[in-house]
């Protein structure tokens, strides 16, 4: 049976970038963002802490300077300012009345360059210590001078951030960048390892899923261990594999069962597409499919009609020397039609043969029955009173009754054989069957019978039927062989594991035109064949050979003689005698 289709093999595409790379890049991106935020946060916190530390240092220096100036500020305090060794540090001393006691230029910095100095000094003279961070790295601090009678003045200082702090900040910034780079690198490595672990398991599951797609359902899935989501996915795939294996096993069994049923059908079953391509067919449909895999041309018009009208039927579609009954139904869901085609040729021939058989049987019965009826009427008319006439018509009645009896027996024998069909055969000794057939019927005067049987010739058949066939062939040979003549029975084992049995005569032979018809029922031939009998003997003999699953034929030449042959399957020699 032609298959509808086979499972497609899954194509595994090779991607230049897999999930492993995407996960690694994702980890790297997350690590970079986290490192960036950490760098910015740490940098900002460090800058703030550094600024606060610088402010505290500036405030401490200014407080120490105020202690050296003392409670009575004066112009001579400029020397105290110059004694401060820190670079970038400038200071000014004010008295309680807000007057500047030291020069306006202090270590290269003008007092006017200090923004908000008046407010700062004013706040300091009220007793407050102030420290402010100016844009950049500049710190402004102010400390009051305390005397016995209260606040006697103020020291205002402006200081750049110490170089040591800048160097420390630069070193820390480099360290932070290095730490961030190391963190990103470590995150990439860890991410790659994690991604590899994940993708390895996923790839293993993907390979198992691909094997399921390819129909390899007997191989257990790998990578189902663990307690995470991937393990759950693996378990789900394994459960699916088992379910699919059971389902496909059931479907395969059902498919094989349906295939066996379809192939055993005598009717052809086909599913044909819109373009005439045969998608499905059983064995009986092979004669209806062309070499190109499409339905034969004679079916195409009916396939189209079924596709257009939903159904189409035809009881006598002639294709060459065959006659088919066609039934076609549309399958919209399949975009095809279902065609069931039955070969009616043998049935029609059988019907014709049966009609001819009934007609011939009626004809054969009509003549003796007419003779019987006529003889009875003559006897009733007075012939019964005449002894000679009575004996004559009684003899005719006896002959006609015997003829009807023989015809009836022949018809019953043929009917019984037709009803039996194929019988169970057994091993039989052909030599014994030939000897018993030769002994069962005596040859006419002037006819010699010879037997030529090889050693250990055994066949598979029925001993009773074979003996009956041989008796019929001998009887036919005796009737058609004028004396002096010879009838020969031969049997031998051929090379093809067959047993060949022949009944040859030296009679009148059969013409080439009649050789093919001698096995027809009621055929009695022309002048080249005997005219007696009903023409059923050879037909019955051939049917008996068919029952034994053998073959029967004839070779003949007009004026030379005929050789009827029977071919049976060879078997071992049977010790059981023929009944």
Short note summarizing the structure:
The protein is an alpha+beta fold and 579 residues long. The chain contains 12 helices and 18 strands. The protein has helices spanning 19-69, 78-82, 117-125, 163-213, 229-264, 300-309, 345-380, 387-420, 430-440, 463-479, 512-515, 537-547; strands at 89-95, 105-106, 109-110, 130-133, 138-147, 150-160, 268-273, 278-281, 311-319, 322-331, 336-343, 426-429, 447-453, 458-461, 485-493, 498-505, 551-557, 561-569.
Can you walk through the features of this model?
There is one protein chain. 47% of the residues lie in helices and 21% in strands. It has twelve helices and 18 strands. It has helices at residues 19-69, 78-82, 117-125, 163-213, 229-264, 300-309, 345-380, 387-420, 430-440, 463-479, 512-515, 537-547; strands at residues 89-95, 105-106, 109-110, 130-133, 138-147, 150-160, 268-273, 278-281, 311-319, 322-331, 336-343, 426-429, 447-453, 458-461, 485-493, 498-505, 551-557, 561-569. Strand 5 (138-147) and strand 6 (150-160) form a beta hairpin. Helix 1 (19-69) runs antiparallel to helix 4 and helix 10 (463-479) runs antiparallel to helix 12. The radius of gyration is 62 Å and the shape is rod-shaped.
Give keywords:
18 strands, five-stranded mixed sheet, alpha+beta, 12 helices, 579 residues, disordered N terminus
